[in-house]
Amino acid sequence: xxxxxxxxxxxxxxxxxxxxxxxxxxxxxxxxxxxxxxxxxxxxxxxxxxxxxxxxxxxxxxxxxxxxxxxxxxxxxxxxxxxxxxxxxxxxxxxxxxxxxxxxxx
Length: 106
Prior knowledge:
mainly alpha
């Protein structure tokens, strides 16, 4: 191998290494820019207030008892309305019959 041939190969390798270094720098710059854009695009948390802790077991038990008592109250009220409607219907039927008897002269 001649000295000029080896020198040419070394020169070509140095030029290629310099080009690769530039490419690596460009890729690093592009990656840094993408990372900066992603960090800017990340939204801030939606709310900043403190959330209340959940209900305790005692509160849930009290709520369940209140619903049960309310349901029983509604059931009794419905029964009372049904009894009242039945009594009113019977009373009206009796009064109608009395009215018919009075009209016939009995």
